[in-house]
Amino acid sequence: MKTISQEELAYIACGNAILGSGGGGSPDYALLMAQHAFEQYGSAMLADVEELGDEDLVLPIAYIGAPLIFQEKLPSGREFEFMFQKIERDFGKLPKAVIALEIGGFNGLIALSISAKLGIPAIDGDTMGRAFPEIQMTSCHVAGIPVSPAYLADATGNVTRIDALDAMTAEKIARHVCISRGSACAIALYPMSGATAKQSIVAGTVTQSSIMGRAILESAKQGLDPISSFLQSQPSVQLAQGVITDIDQSVKEGFLIGMVTIASQEGRIEVEYKNEYLMARREGKVLASTPDILAILENTGGTPITSETLRFGLKVTLVALPAPSIWTSGKGLDLVSPQVFGYPFEYVPSVPKTDLIFTRNDL
Amino acid sequence: MKEPLIIGMDIGGTYTDAVLITKDERILASAKSPTTDDIIHGVEGALSLLFKQFAVSPHQISQINLGTTHATNAILQKNGLFRVGVLRIAGQYPESLPPCFGWPPDLVKAIFAGCETVNGGMECDGSAISPFNPGEVKEAIHSLVNNGAEGLAVVGVFSPLYREQEKITSLMIAEMLGKDFPHTISSSIAGLGFVERENATVLNTALQKVMSRGFEDLQSIFNRMDFKCPLYLTQNNGSLINLDKAIRYPILTVSAGPTNSFVGAARLQGLSDAMVVDIGGTSTDIGLIENGLPRRSLNISNIGGVRLNFSMPDVLSIALGGGSYLDFSEGDVRIGPKSAGRQLNTQAFCFGGSHLTLTDAAIAFGKFTFPEASAENVPLSPGQAEKILSDVISTIELECSLMQSKKRKLPIIVVGGGSSLLPAALLEERYVIPAHAHVANAFGAAIAEITGVVDTVVSLTDRSEELEKLKMQALQKALDAGADAATVKVVDMQIFPYHYVPGHQARVVVTASGKQNH
Question: Which of A35-39, B287-291, B419-423, B457-461 has the lowest average pLDDT?
Fold first, then answer.
């Protein structure tokens, strides 16, 4: 187990925004919340999944709802206290560790905040390896772990237990409960044993976030090129560099749907998004698509630009990271392939295969 | 009766600028005087220069519009600020993020006097998070004041949509502590975004002491100079608020400067779509005017290290100005980022000093003259000077290209005290330097309008009907604030749809604007 320092939180937040593939909400408030939790309760402990006992209860957690609602109705942190009381009654024990449901965006740092607050370790990893819009799009679902019992809680003490037959139904029920609680809730689901977690999570994504974020923030601070630092920090590929010349978006069925155009020297790049960036093409030719992770980085500071903060005239670089391997298998692709999102083409990896693996020793 | 005239002023960090204009925006006189620490002497200086150029009875002035960085300076210098207690009406107890978190520590120390959270606050659909309890509020107010709060900031969840609880709290404060007890309710000054609105509310309360003093001083000079007209302040979005409101809501005036200069520049040149380059002593601000208004920044704004959510113009600032030092130590010349600033008149070679500045290059090139400046001492050949000025122009050109699409080659209006440094011979055709370019910001203040803003969340199921209703509300608000019915119109509408919320809910911000009704 390692201690996460205050300084590292900013790196992790930056990396979380990249792994969000444009979605998952901005980590800005999550970073402030984690910094405060560390100040108040001490730093969080980060554990490798291998350090878990096979019988330990592990809980993936997140906040779900509308990002704009969270900006007004700030989370309390008490949601998880109420929820854990209920879980203790149901399971006869408390979770030994929490893990991020979704590493990409706002939720990436929540597990660390709650870990600091409740004094239990957070696992270095998550269940998506990126951001996705629905709760069946997780490695736990791919691994066949039951989603239930799932728990939703608000900050006033209302806790709802969901016993759903499958993850898709749990998603629908959770959505309704969440709306009835003001469109902002804490959630825990896929409760599992340490033994199961070792087989089914996407490991190392907190460290991966930290490595990427440090590469970008430190080189920007030193006046170096954050983009090339980023590309060296990770197996990744630069798809284009240019200026954002058009943003066309609307909201359909709760999703922010749109297309951003980047004018580059090699031609016109279009990136389509449904909360997350899903597909990039140049002059009609597909460059990369889901489940690969697409990120748009602002050139001078390297700041990841989410689909909510796209801005006309920004000079940016479009990069891709390989999809977590869980998503490139048959069962994973069934959940998150281009076809699932309505595209008429098959997934082709955009990042060349590499044996490069980074660990915490590289930090 | 003689034609009513308007004075526009901009109190900047280095200079206080003033213009005298007619109602149809003709400039009769303009003046620049050094800004003084007490502000009032700088204002008096600029006004007396103005009246030397154009003699007019103070009674003929119908309105004075003022843009100032006074509030920003007070925050930066942590000077004369109230200690503020924060009262959160938030039934969900947002302990995950306390007030003033992430602020510069010395500012927190100067301002923050504790926080109490009480039940209440609303969900976005108008239902209560938890029941509001006046008895609990009363206790919280007592406790904050007993802990040393000199003013109170009241912030309720979703209060920009549902103000009732904040208003009741305000009445309770007045009843318990007297009606002059300094306090601000958040729904009066900012829109959605709890942290940023709370920040603005705390800063606003903290500023009420120093600002009421500063503005009352200004009012007393104007009285002494026998002006009978109302005094207006320009606010962050470039529109006017009256003195009473500015004293109650000083935070609304913190970043009016760039807006005034961009709008002023566009109007001086008679363009409604253009890039504006404002060259000052230490920095250059670049902005974009669309339909006569500055393009807004999408980024969270920031004053003195505090996040705010005011609509502010999209400004690209570069460390390049008339006082920028020239550095040859690495072969090629480096311009800035350090600058002689207010010491330009003593430090630059052309003024007999021993520092090489951008102003020296302009003097050495030979197309720019300035009283008491001489090319004799400047160790630059005209060729070297030309190279430096060309570099400056390409830097500006490059930065301008970042702000706009390649498709459009908009005209570039150059204004500000440093605008005359750029020789016309080196500029492309699309660059223009309008007459009175050096006082564009004061002119921008002079022509500022009265606005009404509606910022709310509605269901857009009946989209056009709902939007029409909001437009009418914005127009009415502008009229109520003193806008002239003949000129008032809706100038802006923004729609931010909410994800994952049923009923097509969206935050809509409508702005209506019109000239001051005389």
Answer: B457-461
Over residues A14-36, mean pLDDT: 94
pLDDT digits (tens, 9 = 90+) for A81-140: 999 999 999 999 999 999 999 999 999 999 999 999 999 999 999 999 999 988 889 999
Closest in B95, B157, B507 to A73, CB measured: B157
Q: How far is Cα B124 from Cα B505, in angstroms, rounded to an integer?
A: 9
Strand partners, B87: B116, B154
Distances B118 to A33, A184, B130 between C-alpha atoms, Å:
20, 20, 9
Any CB–CB contact under 8 A between A24 and chain B?
A: no
Q: Which residue in this structure is represented by tokens 């404002």?
A: B278
A41 touches chain B (CB under 8 A): no
Cβ separation B193–A71 shorter than 8 A = yes
Question: Residues 6 or more apart from B79 whose CB is under 8 A from it?
Answer: B73, B210
Give the least confident one: B58-67, B159-168, B455-464.
B455-464
What is the C-alpha to C-alpha distance for residues B33 and B28, in angstroms, rounded to an integer? 17
Q: Is B92 helix (H, G, I), strand (E, B) or coil?
A: coil
CA distance B493 to B455: 10
Question: Testing the interface with B: which of A9, A74, A172, A243 to mutate, by most B Cβ within 10 A?
Answer: A74
B397-439 confidence digits (pLDDT tens): 888 876 765 556 889 999 998 898 999 888 988 999 999 999 9
Torsion angles phi and psi, residue B107, rounded to 5: -70, -40
Q: From A183, which residue of chain B is nearest by alpha-carbon distance?
A: B501
Cβ neighbors of A173 (< 8 A, separation 6 or more) are: A162, A164
d(CA B275, CA B375): 32
From B76's Cα to the closest Cα of chain A, the distance in A is 22
Average pLDDT estimate for A210-220: 94
Under 8 Å CB pairs connecting chains A and B tally to 124
